[in-house]
Write a structure and sequence with these properties.
alpha/beta, seven-stranded mixed sheet, 7 strands, globular, binds zinc ion
C-alpha cells in the first residue's frame, strides 16, 4: 500500500481542548498531513479565572472592568490563544463555531449542520472527536462525564454530523463523505481503555508553550511545566517512553497483517539502562 497524505478533522468543545492531543497533530502536519481544527463553542463560559477571582472578593472590592468585560472580549482572547497554540503545531485552519454554552447538541441543529458541511468540504480520512461516552469506566466517571457536559454534547453533535455527511442531502451541492477512522483523546478515558499512545517526546516543549498560551484560563510558566510533566510524563512513563499522548479508536481497525511499531521493537531489544535513560530523557552519569 502506498502512503498517502492524510486529512484530519479535529473537533473540540472549547478552545483549550485542542491541546490534549496537539503533539500528535504536530507530528502529522510535519509529515505533510493536513489538519482542520473546529471548536463548537467559544469557551467564553469556561475557566474564566479572572472573573472567578473577582467574584470571590467582597462586592465593594470588585473591579468593574473585570465584572463587566463582555463575554465577546473574553471569547476573542480564547480564539487568539487557540490560533497561536494551533500554529505551534503547524495548523492554520482553525474554525470557531458559535455554539452557545452550556452546549446541547439537540438544541443547536445549526452547529450540527455547520459540522456536516465542514466534513463534506474537508473530506477527512481521520476524525479526532470528543469522547461520546458518559461513563469513563471508573466509578468517578460520572463526575467528569455528565450528560449535559459540553464535551459529550459536542461529541454527539459530531456523531450526528458524521452520519449526515455520509448520506446524500436533498438540496446540498456537497458530495457525501464517509470518514475512515475516528479517535478520541485518551485524556477522557482511564489508561486501561487506551488503544495506543503516540510518542510526542519531540513535541513536549511545544505542549508546554501551548499550555502557557492560555492566559485566559489563568495559566503561567510553572503551572504549564508542572501540568505537562505530570500528565504527558505519566503517560510516557506507563507507555515506555519520555512523553506520550493516548488515544481510543472508535472502531476496530482492519489491518493487512500484525504490525509492530519501531518503539515496541526497540523497547524489547534495548538494555534496561537504555530503557531507563530513554524514559528519563538523559544519560545516566558514570
Ligand atoms: Zn473543554
Amino acid at each position: 500500500m502506498t502512503e498517502t497524505s492524510l486529512r484530519f478533522l479535529v473537533v473540540n468543545a472549547h478552545p483549550h481542548d485542542f491541546t490534549h492531543y496537539a503533539g500528535t497533530v504536530g507530528i502529522h502536519t510535519t509529515l505533510g498531513d493536513s489538519v482542520t481544527v473546529v471548536v463548537a463553542t467559544s469557551g467564553a463560559l469556561t475557566h474564566n479565572e479572572k472573573l472567578s477571582d473577582e467574584l470571590k472578593k467582597p462586592p465593594e472590592e470588585r473591579d468593574p472592568a473585570i465584572l463587566n468585560e463582555p463575554p465577546d472580549e473574553y471569547a476573542a482572547q480564547k480564539a487568539d490563544e487557540l490560533r497561536k497554540a494551533a500554529a505551534l503545531f503547524g495548523v492554520t485552519d482553525v474554525r470557531i463555531l458559535d455554539g452557545p454554552q452550556p452546549f446541547l447538541a439537540q438544541q443547536n441543529p445549526h452547529i450540527i449542520d455547520q459540522i456536516t458541511d465542514i466534513v463534506q468540504e474537508v473530506r477527512p480520512h481521520i476524525l479526532i472527536n470528543q469522547s461520546p461516552y458518559l461513563l469513563t469506566g471508573a466509578r468517578k466517571g460520572l463526575l467528569s462525564g455528565y450528560l449535559e457536559d459540553d464535551h459529550i454534547q459536542t461529541a454527539f453533535a459530531v456523531e450526528k454530523a458524521q452520519y449526515y455527511a455520509s448520506t446524500p442531502r436533498p438540496g446540498s451541492t456537497l458530495a457525501p463523505h464517509r470518514i475512515a477512522a475516528s479517535f478520541y483523546p485518551g485524556v477522557y478515558f482511564p489508561r486501561e481503555d487506551w488503544d495506543f499512545a503516540v510518542d510526542i517526546s519531540d513535541w513536549f516543549d511545544k505542549r508546554v508553550e501551548a499550555e502557557n498560551l492560555f492566559k485566559s484560563q489563568g495559566h503561567w510558566e510553572a503551572w504549564s511545566d508542572k501540568r505537562m510533566e505530570v500528565t504527558l510524563g505519566n503517560h510516557g512513563w506507563y507507555s515506555g517512553t519520555l512523553y506520550a499522548e493516548g488515544f481510543v479508536q472508535a472502531r476496530t481497525e482492519i489491518l493487512p497483517k500484525i504490525t509492530l511499531s519501531p518503539f515496541t521493537l526497540r523497547a524489547a531489544e534495548e538494555s534496561p539502562k537504555d530503557h531507563m535513560e530513554r524514559i528519563v530523557g538523559s544519560p545516566k552519569p558514570d
